[in-house]
Predict the 3D structure of the following.
Amino acid sequence: MQELVIDTIGRYHTQRLLARGGMAKVYLAQDIQTGKQVAIKLVHSSAVEYSERFRFEAETLAKLSHKHILPIIEYGECESWHYLVTPYISGGTLNQRLKKGPLSCEHAGQLLDQLAQALQFTHEQGLVHRDIKPSNILMRDEHFIYLADFGLAKYIDEIGGLTLRGYILGTPEYMAPEELAEDKATPLSDLYSLGILLYQMVTGKLPFTANNAINVCIKHLHDFPPIPSSFNANISETVESVILRALEKDPQRRFQTMREFSQAYWQALEKDRYAQMMAVTQLIPVLEVPQVNVYKMRQSSRRRTLASTMLALAVLASIPIVFGLSALSHGQSPLLVQAQRGSLPPHATVLLFTPTPIPTPIPTPTPVHPAVIMESSRNPPNVQNNTLPASTGGSEPPEDNQHYRDESRHDNCHYHHNHNNAFPDWLGGDPFANGNRGGRRGRGDN
């Protein structure tokens, strides 16, 4: 392999070597005009067969435009070198990532889906990649990749094509049995290679390894791959069955398109998630919910609503009645009170209730001393003048003795009785104090 002795190719200034493989070298370079970093792939023109394939790769990439296929910026010749310029992907290759360990099934599924999209597009353009391996997959980040290196690509209906004498076209660890036995590459050969890559992503191992390339090819032709779960216990049977189907020896027993392969893998993941969810649900105790008669609940609710409405109306109706009774107990009409206060509405009709007069109770006659009764029967007092005879030794009653005058009006012969058996001073004291047992006539008696 020729060594690069110049540091400038066209308008690109080389900085350092990134990778080396076959007859080609890849350098990190800087675009002198834009200042951007790029990757520049070089092949010396002395390697005629490699130079022809290199030109074919450049022409192929120029026809392919897909978000997961590494695009081409420029192709040309500078002195004795053929060069191909592509964007520089700083994330490295998938091969470098897998050296750190296997990916989770979900992460591997994301990368599988992107590769399947790129290869499906490639096959629809009539091309077969023929060199699918981790070192040809560039990672922009952990979840976005580019398919690169179409140096071994060929058209599906091409007979013969460009070959390299004395070389196996491809990497034995990723080649399909029909490629090794018949040198016949088809889209299903790419699918087999992608199945090998998926196996490696989830297990961290290759299914077929040996001490030389010939033994590896023999295993591809005759051996069955180890069960993926033997390397990674987290791989379920459903995911495992998808991987093993992609690695079938007979191409017709594999998935028939890249799209079908990717969809089957994601369906297996969804099935696993559902099974895990159901397993967790069975651990949670489920409370039995009693059956509810919705019709009865509605009827009961309507009855309660009707009863509440009637109770509210009864309470509202009782308010004026209670208020009216309270006002009547004070001898006034409720509406009359409101009318007097000016609180009635302008069009209200005032109903005047005349309260029934409460009769004044007749006082019970006060018992009169027997001696007074006897005296009265002989000489009745002059009731009109409300005076007693002067001969009794009494005096005129006080003018302010309203009680005596009231008693005289109701009973012609009633005198106020003192329960202590003593007459008031204005009546002359006790009539029996001097032994006088007779009555005294009042003035003005007949």
Observations:
- The first strand starts at residue 8 and ends at 9.
- Residues 294-328 form the longest helix (35 residues).
- Confidence is low (pLDDT under 50) at residues 383-397, 399-423, 434-446.
- The chain has three domains: 8-87, 94-281, 370-427.
